[in-house]
Amino acid sequence: MKAIIANSYGDPGSLELGELPEPKVGPDQVLIRVKAAGVNPVDWKVLAGYLDPIMYVHFPLVPGWDVAGVVEKLGEDVPEFQVGDEVMGYVRRDEVQHGTYAEFVSAPARTLARKPASLSWQQAAGLPLAGLTAYRSLQRVGLASGETVLVHGASGGVGSLAVQIAVAQGARVIGTASERNHDFLRSLGAEPVTYGDGLGDRVRALAPEGVDAAVDFAGSGVIDVSQELLRDRTRVASIADGEARAKGAHVVWVRPDAADLTALADLADAGKLTVPVDTVLPLAEAAEALSLSQKGRARGKIVLDVS
């Protein structure tokens, strides 16, 4: 099969399009013919070696944890799926080597859900990791209907999904973004504010009594600003601040969860969640896709088209 391969740690330019054997399929796994693979910042961080202290990474490495595709083959004990099912998944194992930037990937059934009929292959591939991260972050801060949540980095891949999920849950959403993305946030149901100096005052102008919860997908010290605005300083979660725990915030490292992924699929098919896609590139241009991800300026998801 064709796959994107790294033979050692490096930058996106070290990636090559090559040939690998078709993956083995374990008893609790399915073989997926990949239609599209989502690109996430963690992909280039794995490639750069940043996760080496906490995860075993083996070479040759195929990057990627997000996938959408068709079930090609079943393991011995996978009653959840049938050959031909359209699925999506956050295919993260405990050790990193056999990723989704390939024509085929074997995936544990526990990492998969059925693809929403309302989403394209590219949108479905962009949903799992970002959607589950957004969903879990909102769970960690205990967001409830009628509350106000501040979403930092609201126009990005994770933030744009968090906005929609919070709106679907009946929350009021204030989202930070550059001014060029304000109309985009309004289209998702958020009230936009510009990030940077004076952010606290701008949020107070919209919510004089403060906010109930905050989620940080941007970093850059926004936990401190959030805690000044929160009625309960503990109701903030972050995926972007290395000092989050020391600051009293929840740290989110999302797990594969078929039930939560199915809940996101249900929101999509109910018309309450879509996946903004910024850029679609062919598999052979994975290096360019990771370089774009490193710049951190995408409005929505970057996706590789494998079909």
From TrEMBL:
GO terms for molecular function: oxidoreductase activity. InterPro entries: ADH-like_N, Chloroplast_QOR, ER, GroES-like_sf, NAD(P)-bd_dom_sf. Pfam families: ADH_N, ADH_zinc_N_2. CDD domains: MDR_like_2. Residues 10-304 form the Enoyl reductase (ER) domain. It comes from the Bacteria. This is NADP-dependent oxidoreductase. It comes from Nocardia uniformis.
